[in-house]
Amino acid sequence: MGAGHDHSGAVANAAHRHRGRLWAAFALLTALMLIEAVAAFTTGSLALLSDAGHMFTDVLGIGMALAAISATRRARTDPQRTFGLYRLEVLAALANAVLLGAVAVYVLIEAVRRFGEPPEVLAGPMLVVAVLGLLANVAAFALLRSGAQESINLRGAYLEVLGDLLGSLGVIGAALVIAVTDWWWADPVVAVAIGLFILPRTWRLGRAAVRILVQAAPEHLQVTAVHDRLTAVPGVAEVHDLHVWTLTSGMDVASAHLTIDPGAEVATVLAAARDALHEDFSIDHATLQIEPGASAGACGPTEW
């Protein structure tokens, strides 16, 4: 026997609500990425190149977010995909983290090479393009901010834009320093700062995605607390084979076997257990198997 309360549609709709904003941010950042890439090679600025590379991952990340949202909605009509394609969102976030980390490492290596003999940089064009990049990132930041609270995929794009916004400020600062003092080291110094800023955020995003993919329990939730709460439900004698994991952003799920006391009403126990998971842990999708006390252990080994 089982009980469940599925809010998967709400998760999909949460991401879908922000699709228009994602498209706007995608178009804006794509245009500025191309401008920055051309300007980086024209001016010789590594800092500007790193910002363009970072913006490329923004564009790619938002593109994957859009693709994941579309695929998830289509999969809801496929009876063979019983959980839809919600994990595409997590895979896209992991890909973003890997790409962003690769860009950061490349920038750091190239910056170290330039410290020995920093090339001259055209500060004027570098400054103009960096200001345009800053304005584009401010607009994209505003577009993605609300959705970042609801979706790990949107959060990945949001964090990338946030890092790029700060990177644009760094490029502006480097351009001003070079224009005023001809201190060419400002360019690789800012490039290193951008790379070091990106790496820890990339690590956290990748770690969150991997944690979901290996079906570990959510960090904010203690499995022992879930066990104790279900055990405290009136009519429940024992809880075993308990599993709690995250399917995608905002969708924690659980399964458990509940051994009930003789004479306990199955429907009442199921309703109370479901309400406890919802109210105490925000778990709205739970599969609960009821086992009368006399048949305890009849479900077989549950070593995993």
UniProtKB/TrEMBL annotation:
Q: Does the keyword Ribonucleoprotein apply?
A: no
Q: Which family does it belong to?
A: Belongs to the cation diffusion facilitator (CDF) transporter (TC 2.A.4) family. SLC30A subfamily.
What sections of the protein cross the membrane? 22-49, 55-72, 84-109, 121-144, 156-178, 184-203
Keyword Transmembrane attributed = yes
Topology versus the membrane: Multi-pass membrane protein
Where is it located?
Membrane
Alphabetically ordered keywords of this record:
Ion transport, Membrane, Transmembrane, Transmembrane helix, Transport
- Chief subcellular location equals membrane
Pfam families registered for this protein in UniProt: Cation_efflux, ZT_dimer
User: Listed GO molecular functions?
Assistant: zinc ion transmembrane transporter activity
Q: Where is the Cation efflux protein cytoplasmic domain?
A: 219-292
The entry's protein name is: Cation diffusion facilitator family transporter
This protein's GO cellular component annotations are: plasma membrane
Source species of the chain: Micromonospora robiginosa
Domain (Cation efflux protein transmembrane): residue spans on this chain: 22-214
- Tree of life domain: Bacteria
Name the InterPro entries for this protein: Cation_efflux, Cation_efflux_CTD, Cation_efflux_CTD_sf, Cation_efflux_TM, Cation_efflux_TMD_sf, CDF/SLC30A
SUPFAM superfamilies recorded for this chain? Cation efflux protein cytoplasmic domain-like, Cation efflux protein transmembrane domain-like
